[in-house]
Amino acid sequence: MFTSTSLIAIAADLIAIVILAGPLYYRRHRRRDLMFAFITLNVGVMVVAAALGSSAGAGAGLGLGLFGVLSIIRLRSDPISQAEVAYYFGALALGLIGGLAPGSWWVTPVLAAGLLTVIAIADSPHLTRSSRSLVMTLDVAVLDRDRLERIVGERVGGIVRRLDVREIDLVRDLTILEVWYRPITNPRPVPTPPHGQPAAAWTPNAPQSPSVAAPTMVLR
Q1: Nearest to 17 by CA among 34, 1, 4, 2
Q2: pLDDT confidence tier of residue 123, bands split at 50, 70 and 90
Q3: Inter-CA distances, 201 with 59, 193, 205, 214, Å
Q4: pTM above 0.90, yes or no
């Protein structure tokens, strides 16, 4: 039989998972399949925890058991990013808190609000705006660290902060690496050749010939 505390916990969990899957995750990462997965996982865990958690002494054991089993299932499925793994465990934790309804009526809403606040701050784009990361495959095998940083900096259009070389293939002439860099907000404009002069034969620092200078007009 559901009590007022358990009903409040269930309502708090449903509100929290909608906020987690919608405004927090989908608005930032734009994956509808995972948004649906987070909601379904949360509701399923909450229902199972609420149905089985009423027995005496099953609270802690049930929570740890469900957490471990579902973690193994998630790790054996399609790979997802580390940020999505964090959202996955957040949805799982919210479901367990809402289903088990620990303590007084206010415990579940406070814990859910705290978890959502931590996720919202940790995944805020304002914290990582000045730094980005990506995995690159270069069509050249580079052993010199300084040269590799220059090449990667030119490719990403930013300042390289860290490089993690994963593989260097000298046979296929490939370099696979992960790079952390800071984008240049105001890149230097690329100069264009004068009118009528081919770009291949023109250099930005070459002196201009007087014959190609455009005529000027003075209005009186």
Answers
A1: 34
A2: confident
A3: 77, 9, 12, 19
A4: no
